[in-house]
Amino acid sequence: MQPWSAPDVPALPVTAPEVALHDTATGGLVPVAPEGPARLYVCGITPYDATHMGHAATYVGFDLLNRAWRNAGHEVVYAQNVTDVDDPLLERATKVGIPWQEIAERETELFRQDMTALRVLPPAFYTGAVESIPLVIALIERLEAAGAAYEVEGDLYFSVTADPAFGEESHLSREEMLRIFPQRGGDPDRPGKKDPLDPILWLAERPGEPSWESPWGRGRPGWHIECAAIAMEHLGGSFDVQGGGSDLVFPHHEMCAGHAQVAVPGTPFAKVYAHAGMVAYDGEKMSKSKGNLVFVSSLRNSDIDPMAIRLTLLRHHYRSDWEWTNAELNESFNILDQWRKALALGAGAPTGLVVEDVLDVLAADLDSPAALEVIQDWVDATLGVDGLADASEATAAATISDLLDAALGLKL
Questions:
Q1: How many domains are there within the chain?
Q2: Which of 212, 234, 280, 374 could bond 323 through an S-S bridge, CB–CB 3.0 to 4.6 Å?
Q3: What CATH number is attached to the domain comprising 161?
Q4: Rounded to an integer, what is the distance from CA 295 to the centroid of its chain?
Q5: Is 19 helix (H, G, I), strand (E, B) or coil?
Q6: What strands lie across the sheet with 200-204, from one edge to the other?
Q7: In what order do the strands lie in the sheet with 38-42?
Q8: What's the CA gap between 258 and 268, in Å, rounded?
Q9: Where are the beta strands (DSSP E) in 100-193?
Q10: pLDDT tens string 117-126
Q11: Positive or negative CA dihedral for 402, 406, 408, 409?
Q12: How do strand 279-281 and strand 322-323 relate by DSSP bridges?
């Protein structure tokens, strides 16, 4: 599967510091300074609907990490999946009477267009669930060999107890896990399972549903095994950062880690688990079931500047929960207008430590609001807000323009 096109990103005159991220597993700030290429996996979309602001916030958030690593001098190997066959997609296809493949292709292409407009750097490996089926089968066979897979009425399940580290990523109690599991695709009450928390590895063929050949008969992969197999194929048995929304902490990321850690014993799936906050609208988390979605494509089709959308996302720390409002989007238009006026002068207030300060705060858990404050101070000085009307650096505007693009993804 092809990703979207990569934007041109300018090089900065200084090298950024090494990045430290908040790790969900430890609860603290962890340095992420790879000796070789930095390896990142961010869970992708299930393409049954268009990209909403919750999705966009996650991918823009981890785009900051991608850029921070590159600005620190690292090569980045980024992998992302597309769950292009799963229950929500099949249910949507049945409801609207359109083939599931057609919906998946259409919405994936729309996602590519949204990411291009938002200047999100594309992954090197963009892999659909369907094309990953051989990888999934190979990983399930490894789990079978380890004694961690078993059958229930033709379906294959993973034994969570096979991973001694199960629960160390989310740190949820068993009671909390049992409460959340059915809300996020689990089936704790199914008879015949060894443990209510065991997730599906391979779902046997159901009437009217797509299926593929496997050693266990025709069927399709489970959600968690899909991501584990793709990440292991492209990033290895252990990599630097597993990213996604905070709603993926459990069960998805916990189960992915379990699969990989049983297949490669003694090796943590990811060194750091980083999670983006949830975006609300009208007082509740954006979700299809709530019908409170704000789509990136809808705003773009209304001639909304994608940089205003991206700036609105950057005004919130990637780990924070917040609410999207039209008022804040309008404020972002005003901010961009002011910044463009400052950049259009062709010169500006001394850049001083602006570049270093922006890179420093982004290296400290991707603090984009703090980075924007540094930029705003320079804009205020350039426009004479603080009595500094005289521009003293002919190259200042160009330097700030490159900084905005390379570090924050804002092309003004």
A1: 1
A2: 280
A3: 3.40.50.620
A4: 17
A5: strand
A6: 149-152, 155-158, 200-204, 219-221
A7: 125-128, 76-82, 38-42, 239-245, 270-276
A8: 9
A9: 125-128, 149-152, 155-158
A10: 999 999 999 9
A11: positive
A12: parallel
